[in-house]
Amino acid sequence: ACPLIAVKLNGFACKNPAWVQANDFSFSGLHNPGNTGNPFGSAITPVTVAQIPGLNTLGISMVRIDYAPWGIVAPHYHPRATEIITVIEGSLEVGFVTSNPDNRLISKTLQKGDVFVFPVGLLHFQRNVGHMNAVTISALSSQNPGVSTIANVIFGSKPDISTNILAKAFQVDKNIVQQIQRKF
After folding, report:
1. Closest by alpha carbon to 118, among 138, 89, 101, 104?
2. b/e for 88-104, b at 16 or more Cβ within 10 A?
3. Is 31 annotated as a binding residue?
4. How many angstroms separate the CA atoms of 14 and 6, rounded?
5. CA atoms of 120 and 132, how far apart (whole Å)
6. Within 13 Å, how many C-alpha atoms sit on residue 149's CB side?
7. Residue 78, marked binder
8. By the 8 A CB rule, do 139 and 83 touch?
9. What is the CB neighbour count within 10 angstroms for residue 176?
10. Which of 46, 60, 67, 88 keeps 20 to 30 A from 34, CA to CA?
C-alpha cells in the first residue's frame, strides 16, 4: 500500500497506511486447480496487484498455470516483466524467441522441479508434453506484468488491423486473414 490517499500509482489506487489490513497482502486459492476445459487446455490463476492490492509498487507477482495433457499457453509476451517458471508437476516444453534480426528459438523440455527464465518483452510459450496434468508456478518482476497473446493482438484487435496489411505481413491471401479474424 502506498503512503498517499486518493492517488494512483501504476494505475492502482494507493491506500492510507492506517487503513491497511492483512487481506491487502494475502491471496487464497493457489492450491486449487484451474479449469483446463478450454481450447488451449490451460488455466492461469494470477496473483497480481489486481488480486493483492499490497503488491502495488513492490515489483513482483506470480501465477499458477494448470495444463491438461498437451495443453498450451499460447505464444505471448509480458511488456513489463521477466518471468521465471518452476514445474511443480509434469513435463513441459518451454521456449522463447530472441528479438530481430536473429529470431532464435531457445527451448527446453522441463521436468518436475526444473526452472526456466523468459526475459522481459520476449515472445514465449509453454506446452504440456506429458499424458498427465501439469502445474507450474511463475514469478514475474512486476506487480502488473501485462500480457499480450500474439494471436489475439494480431487477429483480434478492435478495430481489425487491415487485411491488406496482415496478408502482406504473413504472405497469405486476404481470405485466410479474414477467416482467422472471424475466430477472434
Report:
1. 138
2. ebbbbebbbbeeeeeee
3. no
4. 6
5. 30
6. 10
7. yes
8. yes
9. 13
10. 60
